[in-house]
Amino acid sequence: MNMKWNYPLSRRSFLLAGTGAAIAASMRPWPTRAEGQNEVRLTAAPAQALLIAPDRPETAVWAYNGTVPGPVLRLRQGEPSRLLVENRLDEETTVHWHGIRLPNGMDGVPGLTQPPIRPGETFAYEFAPPDAGTFWYHPHADGLVQLGRGLAGPLIVEEREPVAVDRDVLWFLSDWRLTRDGKIAGGFGNMMDAGMSGRVGNMVTLNGRVSDAEPVRAGERIRLRLVNGALARMMALGFEGHRPVIIAIDGQPCEPQEAVGGRLLLGPAMRIDVVLDMQGEPGRRYAVTDDFYDGLAYTLTQLRYSQEPPLRAHPADAPIALPPNPLPEPDLTSAERHELTLQGGMMGGGMMKGMGGMDGMAMPGMNGGAVWAINGMSMTGDGDAHMEPALTFKRGQSVVLTLSNQTAWWHPMHVHGHSFRVLSRNGESVPHRQWQDTVLMQPKDTVEVAFVADNPGDWMLHCHVADHQMSGLMTVFRVA
């Protein structure tokens, strides 16, 4: 797979709020799931968060259990869990358990899989996660605003057997658009964001905090779980002096492999697990940088080595491959084949057919106008537009979808209720044919994916740039 890391987005069209990219990273201890604990309670409510620095004001956010990101939820593979979500916001909400292959009624899409959770109400999500891996949770009601104000958190489904690493580390990456005084900027759902790159912010946090370094020790082996919880920001992470080995993508184990071009490419909603053998020099610092956007590279954090002697003289020799998850293998010889064409947006050779160009374009996003389409059909909002399914599959049918991006913009395309194999990109077979639930498409890309439609119900397929989803880049498929 040949990917161009630098995205040629001009400073004028980048639409940064505030005074440039104040980027930060930190890691704080994460709670673990108590043995035998199968019930979790999450409360969505307004809160305050110290995002920038101790000497700066707190930011008013919306949060799960008072923290951004929300608490790490640790479930066990195959074990029933009950997650109670209480809504203390002044508007309706839901929770989507991103990447989990769960029953349709637990998927968290308002009007499609469940009634929205009204203010003051509680909804119980019950499911047994079939796959171990790194996942996350976020609203699917007023998702642009609720996620943009902080409602998101990581979810880890633990393998049945421990993985041979010295530490299991999570970096949950969030992107914020803040004003000079540290408040969340308004303007959600504006036409420029919706028709271009989405609401890219001016500050990135790691685990909700600003910090300049992450402590490590020479000789240790780390499993690093990376989650891109941003509304729209693409990321291409490089680790100075280190060679991360990818062991899972979107929660699904893959053949261990080094990153293409030495960079880890993460679109919004994507996750990558890597193994890092810490072979740097004690006392040194090594930069972790994000250079996805042309001319706007920044240092996300630094790996700060302690002065301690190396934990071991040579990298650990324990195997790093993860056990596979129980995914059904699609039969490509009998698969149904369908094409889905992504259309619309600005700067893409004209607006969508019938839009009349920018002069005739309705205000998109939260105000209901469509800027994007899939096969000429636009589904706006969060999933409650009552649109008939674009595709219907018989349960157990193998499916090959050809996704064609005819726009000038990047799109992380996410499928609910299933994971798919990525077969090819622009006519070339993809090495390893990894399992994913979100595939990142650059402008003019054509990607083939395959899966078994084995999970009954109506499911969303949409771009995970929140502005794009809200303004039409979404559809529904049915498994019956």
From TrEMBL:
Superkingdom of the organism of origin: Bacteria
Pfam (any one): Cu-oxidase_2
PROSITE patterns, sorted: MULTICOPPER_OXIDASE1, MULTICOPPER_OXIDASE2, TAT
Stored InterPro entries: Cu-oxidase-like_N, Cu-oxidase_2nd, Cu-oxidase_C, Cu-oxidase_fam, Cu_oxidase_CS, Cu_oxidase_Cu_BS, Cupredoxin, TAT_signal
Positions of the Plastocyanin-like domain: 55-161, 200-291, 386-479
Signal peptide as annotated in the record: 1-24
Keyword set, alphabetical order: Metal-binding, Oxidoreductase, Signal
TM regions (residue ranges): none
PANTHER family cross-referenced by the UniProt entry: MULTI-COPPER OXIDASE, MULTICOPPER OXIDASE LPR1
Name used for this protein in its record: Multicopper oxidase family protein
